[in-house]
Amino acid sequence: MSEGKPIPAIELINVSRRFLSPTGKSLTALRDFSMTVERGEFVAVVGPTGCGKSTTLNLVTGLARPSAGEVRVMGEPVNGIDPRVGFVFQTDALFPWRSVVDNVVAGPRFRGRPKAQAYADARDWLARVGLSRFETHYPHQLSGGMRKRVALAQTFINGPEILLMDEPFSALDVQTRVLMHEELLRLWSQAKASVVFVTHDLEEAIALADKVYVLTAGPATVKSVYPIDLPRPRVVADIRYDQRFIDYSRTIWDDLKEEVQTSYARAAA
Ligand SMILES: Nc1ncnc2c1ncn2[C@@H]1O[C@H](COP(=O)(O)OP(=O)(O)OP(=O)(O)O)[C@@H](O)[C@H]1O
Fold first, then answer.
1. Residue 186: inside a domain, yes or no?
2. To pair with 5 at 20 to 30 A between CA atoms, which of 25, 50, 91, 208?
3. What is the mean pLDDT of residues 44-49?
4. Measured between alpha carbons, how far is 158 from 6 in angstroms, rounded to an integer?
């Protein structure tokens, strides 16, 4: 290790990942893919549909192994599920038969936290996401945005050092999404977690991230990396009117558009 340089939270080094298709053909989802996420950094990943974005996250979770190359978390090779890693995916992972507070308490209880302490923590997290009045509700009694708030509390209560998010807000209406963006940035800045946020929505990526990775049409490799030099804390509802935001959107979209067109052309063929 070079002296004084902190170890990154996540490193994918020249990673390839191949799958066998149902017809027995080999499909390369990722090719020679490299990405570094520093501690506390917020990285967004955009790319055409089906290019391999979720596969990158699965490699970090340990759910998938690279066919070639190396994946490191906190400087160590990934070896199974890591308790320092939290997830929020498009479909939330709430237990429908448990109340809101019982959902949030599940992680700490599983990790052996004493019951009284775990419930106190869960109530504290529900207060932070503005759901104190709903702790005895069940998931089906909540709106989509409220369920996402429960999912965030359920994840952040475990104090993840790394947070992997796969289109977490794509099912929400536009206004609720913006509220969730604010909520996420607030929780992230307090928790100082390192985030990888996969999305189809370029504006969402720019509004949230320190860096935006643009992936090629599959097999995914890194086409470009754009540092987003917008001040923090960010007010997501307003930042889209900032000239620098508009400039980033235009530049990155020009880059991404080529890959989206390639992907559509292939699908049509
Ligand atoms: N377990 C698997 N077995 C076979 N093929 C797979 C498997 N997982 C992913 N793939 C294939 O790998 C490619 C990349 O999939 P992945 O889900 O990573 O893409 P994505 O960019 O996240 O897609 P989307 O944007 O539609 O969510 C796709 O062609 C997919 O069919």
1. yes
2. 208
3. 95
4. 23
Give how far the C-alpha of residue 196 lies from the chain's centroid of Cα atoms, to the nearest Å. Answer: 4
Binding-site residues, ligand 1, Cβ < 6 A: 19, 27, 29, 47, 49-55, 218
Q: pLDDT per residue over 100-142, tens digit each?
A: 999 999 999 998 999 999 999 999 999 988 999 999 999 999 9
Ligand 1 atom 1: the closest Cα is on which residue? 19
Within-domain flag for 66: yes
| Ligand 1, pocket-test mutation among 15, 30, 55, most atoms within 8 A of CB | 55
Residue 127's domain comprises 94-159
On whether both 180 and 255 belong to a single domain, the answer is yes
> How many domains does the chain contain in total?
2
- Rounded distance from Cα 124 to ligand 1 centre (Å): 37
Residue 2 lies in a domain: no
Q: What is the CATH number for 34?
A: 3.40.50.300
3 is a domain residue: no
3-state secondary structure of 179: helix
Instruction: Say whether both 73 and 200 belong to one domain.
Output: yes
The domain boundary, picked from 141, 159, 177, lies at: 159
What atom of ligand 1 comes closest to residue 52's alpha carbon?
18
Confidence (pLDDT) at 3: 61
CA of 29 to the centre of ligand 1 (A): 7
Q: How far is the CA of 56 from the centre of ligand 1 (A)?
A: 10
State which of 120, 135, 159 marks the end of a domain.
159
Chain-centre distance of CA 35, in angstroms? 14
Q: What is the mean pLDDT of residues 49-73?
A: 92
Q: Is the ipTM of this complex over 0.90?
A: yes
Are residues 167 and 143 part of one domain?
A: no
Q: Per DSSP, what are the bridge partners of residue 46? A: 214
DSSP string, 80-137: S--TTEEEEESS----TTS-HHHHHHHHHHHTT--HHHHHHHHHHHHHHTT-GGGTT-
